[in-house]
Amino acid sequence: MTEKEMTSEPGSGHQPVPKLIAFYLTQFHPTPENDLWWGKGFTEWTNVTKASPLYENHYQPHLPADFGFYDLRVRATRHDQIRLAKEYGIDGFCYHYYWFSGKRILNLPLDDMLSDPESDMPFCLCWANENWTRRWDAADHEILIAQQYLAEDDINFIQSLMPFFQDARYIKLDSRPFLIVYRPQHLPDVRKTIHIWREYCRTAGIGEIHLCAALTHGNEDYSRFGFDSGIEFPPHNLKTGNINQNISFFHGFQGNVMQYGSLAQSYIDRSYTSTRVFKTVFPSWDNTARTGQRALVVLNGTPENYEFWLSATIDRLKATDHGASAMVFINAWNEWAEGCHLEPDRRFGHAFLQATLNAKNGIRKFAGFSATDLPHPEEFPHKTFWKDIHDVVRYHAMLRSGQLKMTINRRPWLRNLILPLVRLLRKFRA
Fold first, then answer.
1. How far apart are CA 81 and CA 77, in angstroms?
2. What is the pTM for the complete model shown?
3. What is the tally of structural domains in the chain?
4. What does DSSP say about strands 92-100 and 123-127: parallel, antiparallel, or unpaired?
5. 171 with 2: CB under 8 angstroms?
6. Measured by CB atoms within 10 angstroms of the end CB, which terminus of the chain is less buried, N or C?
7. What is the model's pLDDT at position 397?
8. pLDDT digits (tens, 9 = 90+) for 148-180
């Protein structure tokens, strides 16, 4: 995507439609690390297919339609994804980039894309610079692989990006390669780091680079880190409350349920002190597949509601922007375990993709968020004394289990003693 593509054509007389860039997850293939941590053959599909409903009419699991349970080592699958994405108005992918002091993970699809001229989709990268933990089974404190931020990491990291920056498909803003950093607040000396990156790119012939800070985990100001821009990452930095009291859960629920319209409107209306912030929308969100009873579930993530959010975001950007930020990001193309995907599923088919194209083409069918229903079952389950007792005991057992895990993990000798037994039990349960 060149600088010319980011601005309107001469004499067009109107603001351009922003380019639509979808985040892309590469976890859909086996890796030695995931085999070790989660069991042989683990991929993102392992979590997806285990999900079960938390309340009446809860849409889980999300199951794929057109592409099935694909393996991203298959080049033809990625070609099909690109073809479909382009057909429905997606202008590029932003791949998550997993780099840990020189060690890369989930890199096979990305590297094969780079070497494949037929993967003709513009792309950029987002460095997912956070520790990998066992957060999927509530052991957030158990680190699988850490970001160490060693003295030589600054130069080694930016060197690893050179083949991507030099590729003709790499997305540029104002002629600068566009790089997102997911957790800029984690960099020990962020201004020193980005100075090294910029100097290296100049010396290597890349020239200037555009550094974009993800607005995540409470960070809402990219300028304090010395970045060129920021990018929203909904549902990070939520400003709306949950509606848990309106839901009849099957079991003790410890997460949050929110209404799509309220959440989306808060991002439409949001403004920032530093003005160069890229807007991001999502089609739907429900990470039950990863976190179970601790999930964030966004009700009414329908194609109609998503179309309105994306349309309103595009319209607002066209009305206020002057070519500096002509991109809108979509989270995501294929985050299946977070219930967050443009790829066709068995319930909605191509409806989210069609909504994307409608919004991009200026079709405005909705004046607001049309889906606002609560999941009221036709008949609530009959309450019994023993079921209520079971639910209370189960709820408190889950709390105690989390505390016990923390106690064990704070004592390495005890953890090393118990962990082989836990793994053995998991093998039998599988």
1. 6
2. 0.85
3. 2
4. parallel
5. no
6. C
7. 61
8. 999 999 999 999 999 999 999 999 999 999 999
- Considering the domain architecture, whether residues 133 and 97 belong to the same structural domain is answered as yes
Question: What single-letter amino acid sits at 349?
Answer: G
Q: Which range of residues forms the domain containing residue 420?
A: 386-430
Helix (H, G, I), strand (E, B) or coil at 367: coil
For 280, other C-beta atoms within 10 Å of its C-beta total: 22
Q: CA–CA distance from 215 to each of 24, 109, 134, 286, 347 (Å)? A: 18, 27, 23, 20, 31
CA end-to-end span of the chain:
46
Residues 30 and 128 in one domain: yes
Please list the residues that pair with 399 across neighbouring strands.
Answer: none
In tens, the pLDDT along 93-139 reads: 999 999 999 999 999 999 999 999 999 999 999 999 999 998 765 45
Find tokens 């380019």 and name the residue.
19
Q: Are residues 10 and 46 in the same domain?
A: yes
Distance, in Å, from the CA atom of 29 to the CA atom of 44, rounded to the nearest integer, reads 8
DSSP state of 138: T
- Do 340 and 424 lie in one domain? The reply is no
Q: Is the separation of the CB atoms in 294 and 401 below 8 Å? A: no
